[in-house]
Amino acid sequence: MSKPQAPHNSNPFEDLSGVSTAAFSNPYDALLIACEDDAAEIQKRYTAHRTTRNAQQKAKMLDEGFEGVTIDPILLRLSDPTIEPGYVDPRNCLVFWGRPTQKVKEMILKVQKELSKVVPNLWLMPQDCLHITALEITHSKNAQEIQHLINCMRSQIPSIVDHTFTHRTRLIKPMISYDASAIALSWVPAAGEALPPGRTADDDEFTYHHLRRDLHHLCTQTGVQVDSRYVVPSSHLTIGRFIDASDFEEEDEEDEEEEEDDEEEERTLDPEKIEALVEKIEEINRLLERDYWPKGDGKGIKEGGEWIVGQEVGLLCQFGTLWYGGGESIAKGKGF
C-alpha cells in the first residue's frame, strides 16, 4: 500500500504579494524592507495575497475542468480507523503558535456552523485546537529528529514563547481563505484602525510580520535551521478540511434497491454543489466584513473581530503529530 500524501505536498504555498525572499537569510525581512516597515503597506501586501489567492482558487474550483476537492488521506484515516487500522500519522513537527481568544473562537464557531450547512461532512478543527502558526521550525520529520531540535533550543524556548507579552501585534479584518483542500480564517495586521483602549497607532507599527521576523531570528540564534513550509504574507488558522467527496457528488435519483446495486459505481461531481460552497464562503465574508471589520465610526471593533496575539495565553511551543490538534507541549508563554 502506498503511503498517503497530505494535500500540501501538491499545493505549494505561493507568495502572491509581489515580494521575493530569495536574497534574505531571514525571509521575513524581505517584505518589511519592501514596505519600509510601514504597517499600512504591510497590511496591503497581506490583503493582496489573500484576495489574489481566493480569486485564483475560485476560478479553479468553478472551472468546468475541476475534478473535485482534494481529500486529506491522512486525516481521513485518522477519522475513520476502519480504512487502515492502526494507522499513525508519520509527520512530526515543531511549531510556535498562538491560540485565539475565547471571543475569537466564538466567532469561528459561527463560521464553522454556516459552512456545515453546505458541506455537512467537512472536518472541523476542534475549538481547543485552533491555532495560528507564528513560526514552524520544521515538519514531516521523525520523532528523533524533532527531539534533537528540542534539545538544541530548550534553554531558549521559555523566553521565545513569552515574546508576545512584550511585543503585542494586532490582527483584524477576519475573512475566509480557501482552496480545494481546506478552509481557513485569515487576518491582516492592523494599521491604526479602531484602536482598542490603551493601544496607540504606534503600537500597531509592530505587525504580525515583525513578530514572525523576530521568532525566526530568535530560533536561528539557538543554532537550529528553520524549515517552514511557507513564509508568505498570511496570518491564518485552518478551520475545516475536506475528507468526504460525497458532499459534492450528484444525487442518486434511483430507488433504494438500485442504489444498493450501484454502490461501487463511480460518483459524478456536481458543479452546482461546488458553486454553492463558493457562494456560501462569499456570503460569510460579506457578513464578517459587515459585523467584525473596523467601521471608521470610532466605536471600535466588535468582540471577536480583532485579536492581539498572546492575549489570554502567550505563544505555545508544541511538537509531535499535531497537524489536526494533539501533539505535546513544551512551554506556554505569559498571557495578558
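(ticket continues) Second input and output from the same batch:
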Amino acid sequence: MTKLRNSLNARRARQETSLISFIMAGLPNPQLCLDCIKAIEQGGGDALELGVPFSDPLADGVVIERFHHRGINAGLNLKHSLDFADKVRQAVNIPLVLFAYYNPILQMGMEVLAQACQAVGIEALIVPDLPLDEIKQVHTDLEFIPMVAPSSPDERLDMAAAMNPSFIYCVSVRGVTGVRSLPEDEVKAYLQKLKPKTDAILALGFGISSPEQIKTFKNSADAVVVGSYLAQIMEEYESRPQLLPTQIEKAIAALKKPCAN
C-alpha cells in the first residue's frame, strides 16, 4: 500500500477527516511555492495535489485559472512541474498527487509520465478531463484518482468504486472550482449513495474554504480538498512574500481543527 493510501486510511480509522491541499506547481515562483508547501505540512496538511499549468483548464474556476495562465505565460509545463515535484519531495514528507489535464500527458506519453512520477515520489494522478471508461484503457503502474459529481449516474459511481483507488475525488457541485457555499442536502445525499459502493476514502472538493464547511460534511466525507481558498491567500499576500507562508500555515491549521474533532 502507498503512503497516500495508508495515511488517509489511518486517519479515517481514528475518525479524523484528512485535509488535502491543492497548489499550482512553481507559482507564484518556485521558492515561494516551496515555502508555502512547507507551511501546508507545518499547518497539518495530510496530502498535496500539485497542479500542472494548462492553457484550457475547464474544471477550474477563475482564481485557479489565473494561476494556470500565469504558469503558461511563464513557460511552465508538465516537465517543469515534475522537476518541481522532485524538490517538493525533498522538502516535505506528505504524500504527493499530480493534478494534470490530459493533453500534456498525451504529448509526454503515459508510460514516460508514470516513470517520471515514480522517480520524484508522486503516488497518484488526477486527470479531470479523462473519462473514467478511458482511464481503464490506460495501462500504467501509476494510480488514477477518479472524479465523480452529484450528477454522476450510478454506472459512473460503480466504475469509480471498482477502481479501488486511494481516494475518490467527490466534486461538490456541478461546475468549476471556487470558493462558494455548498448545497448541503444534495452533497450529503450523493455521498451517502456512494459510500455503500466502496471502501475508498471519499474526498470532497470544489468549494471547501472554511472550518464550518468541514464540520458540516465531516460525517459524510472522509477527506476534504482545499485549493481556491489557498490560491486566494497566495494572491492576497504575494506582494508581501515574507508573510505568505505564515498565512498559509494559519489557514491550514484553522481548517485542520475540525478535521480532528
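Agent notes: The two ends are 27 Å apart (CA to CA). The chain has a mean pLDDT of 90. Closing as not reproducible unless the customer responds.
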